[in-house]
Structure formats: C-alpha cells, structure tokens
Task: structure prediction
Amino acid sequence: MDNDEIVNRVTSSSLISINLEDYYTKGERILFDLKDHLFQGLILKEKNFRESVKNHDWNQYEGKYLAIHCTTDAVIPTWAYMLLASKLTPIAEEVFFGDLKSLDCHLIKTAIDNINTDQFKNAKVVVKGCGSLPITEFAYVEITKKLLLVVSSLMFGEPCSTVPIYKKPREA
Result:
C-alpha cells in the first residue's frame, strides 16, 4: 500500500447510518381549531356548533394530516371532538387530537415503531443529527428507545464525527 494513499475509513467502516428524515411523514399538516366554531370563540352551543359542522367544507382536508385542538380556554364536551373526528376521518389522511407539534410526534413515533430492528442487531449505529426537516428531540428519544435493546453501540452525529450515546456492556 502506498503511504500517500488516502483511505476513507468512514465508507469502509461497519457503521450503519439512520437518517430520521427518512421516517418523516411528508404531507400538509393543518390545525383544526375549535375556537373558530364556538360562540364568541369561547362557548360551545350545541345547536350552533352542529350547524357550523354541517355547513363546513370538509373536502378541503382531503389527504391532509389534521390536529384537532382548541386554542382558547373553553370547555369542550367530548362528543364535540367525536363529531369532528366522524367528519374528518373519512377524508383526511390522519386525524389526531392535539396541537401540530403533538401530531408531528405521533407521526414520527408511528414510523419509528414500524422499523424492523433485525438489520440493526449487534450493529454500530449512528443517528444523523443534521437535516432540513423539522425532526424534534422526541424523535431522537424514540429511536434511541427502539434501538437500545438490539445495537452494540449507538452514536449521534455524522459517521466522521460522532457522539457516543450507548455501548452494549461486555458479557462476563
């Protein structure tokens, strides 16, 4: 081997990289705010609420990810959320109770839960830390929980510069 030859140790290593952006659910996310369907934005009057629901254009949510939430401090009966879910579920890609951040957490958790960990058994895994999509800390906690029981080591960052997170203890 020539002493001047540059060897890329990253490409020849046994590290497996995971990019959480690969598990990010693409699609428009919308907050369905109940306050827009309340009397003076604060009070749910059943007759008025049902009329508002009846006259609402539900087709605008087709194929979208919906978070049902109320941004005002109003008391909302449980049936109101159920009524909205009954209108949105046949149309939307996903209907979730909570705010947009909670919806994102739900979507990434669902994707992470569906990962088959067989490929990571006793592997050295690095979870990429940079990207252009809004991957929250929640996702990093979930992937750590998912992989911790199967990997030999878990790292954060890029293969050329990692932060060690976990190393499987040696068996005695």
Notes: The chain has two domains: 9-25+107-167, 29-92.
